[in-house]
Design goal:
OB fold (Dihydrolipoamide Acetyltransferase, E2P); alpha+beta; elongated
Amino acid sequence: MELGKFNTLTITRRSDNGFYLADEEGAEVLLPNKYISDNHRIKKEAKVFIYKDSEDRFVATTLEPYLIVGEFAYLEVNETNEVGAFLDWGLEKDLLVPFNEQHQKMVAGNWYVIYLYVDDKTERLVGTSKLDKYLETETIDVKEGDKVNLVVRNFSDLGANVIVQDKYKGLIYKEKIFKRLQEGDFLEGFVKTVRDDGKLDIVLEQEGFHHIIEPVSAKILEALKESNGFLDLTDKSTPEEIKSELEISKKVFKKAIGWLYKHKLIIIKEDGIYLIIEAEKGEENI
């Protein structure tokens, strides 16, 4: 039975307070009545999340928290007191981030990227915004070109600092950011470089025609259809204009409209690009 994670346990008996569930070693935990449904029956299995109640007892719930042990999430502070900050993480009992685990003093109503772990001394679930010590820089199990999951941690003069695969430190250089990003965003990207210091350079667009130009071409055609067949963008448009309209780089935009023009799907004029009426018939080629 793992604290802070989902467990599949067997329902063994009923009490006035709810069902008792047991693991393979016979250890039991209570699933309170308020979480019991018609699908819960004795001798049947149930998938539950295990945490501790206000009296420090193990308890099960069918509610799904926003993160489990070993994961990161973007959480809101409900309140603060002399103990620390209490954050909404999807359960009835808020998640505590003690003062000594706050990268900066937390404020009620603000949001922070949080990591969940089990404190060795108290054996309680605790959140922290001091993230570096939980990120791996020695053993890197991803390689250049891999598709990865990202969490936007914060921003610097260089770009967006991201957490990669819930394990590694990553950076998206600001000149490689072509969509609006905010702290706490979850998105996908690609490993550009695995650096000697154990950090990763990340890009949001994978290199190569089939990975970029084909989907971007389809995106431009869709945007044209939604705009009555016209977009006031050309190869002379600024990178900022293209980024605002399509969330792609100017370099990729120019390659994509060149491909669309070559395949007679669009017309390029001085005031913008036009969808050829028969273009939809050619979309199957993209």
